[in-house]
Specification:
Layout: E1 8-12, H1 16-26, E2 30-36, E3 42-50, E4 53-58, E5 71-75, H2 79-88, E6 93-99, E7 105-110, E8 116-121
Parallel strand pairs: 1-4, 5-8
Antiparallel strand pairs: 2-3, 3-4, 6-7, 7-8
Pfam family, one: Glyoxalase
GO molecular function, one term: lyase activity
Domain VOC: 5-122
Length: 131
């Protein structure tokens, strides 16, 4: 199969500056580049998560309730340390640190537009590691 992995997840955002502050300043990701419409108006900002992995932030979002099933998950090395860092920054948790049925540790937050973000530390005994 030719598929190498997941490249990006896209979100529409209401306030680009607020979203960039959250993803770059709070979570520590990096603004990679922007794309513009043919008339020069802003269209998408790419946020680099890791090598070859991005979030696309589209202008023109609306305030609406986002379902938890429509989320993005970030794999992390030390979930407890990250959870403490985000709590110290005043980030409210949508779901506190817990161990899932797959044995992985996880917690959830929402971005400024209500998009669900999952952070997960993979357990070596988890089905993800053994499939």
């Amino acid at each position: 199969m030719m598929i190498k992995g997941i490249h990006h997840k896209a979100f529409h955002v209401v306030d680009m500056d607020r979203s960039l502050e959250f993803y770059c300043d709070t979570l520590g990701f990096q603004k990679a580049f922007e794309l513009h419409e043919s008339d020069g108006s802003p269209w998408i900002v790419y946020i680099k998560i890791a090598e070859g992995s991005f979030i696309e932030l589209f202008y023109g979002g609306t305030e609406s309730e986002k379902p938890q099933l429509d989320h993005i998950c970030f794999e992390v090395e030390d979930i407890r340390t990250l959870a403490e860092q985000l709590k110290e920054q005043g980030i409210p948790f949508a779901a506190d640190l817990s161990q899932g049925k797959d044995l992985n540790w996880q917690f959830w937050i929402k971005d400024p537009d209500g998009n669900w973000l999952e952070f997960m530390e993979i357990n070596p005994e988890s089905p993800q590691m053994n499939s």
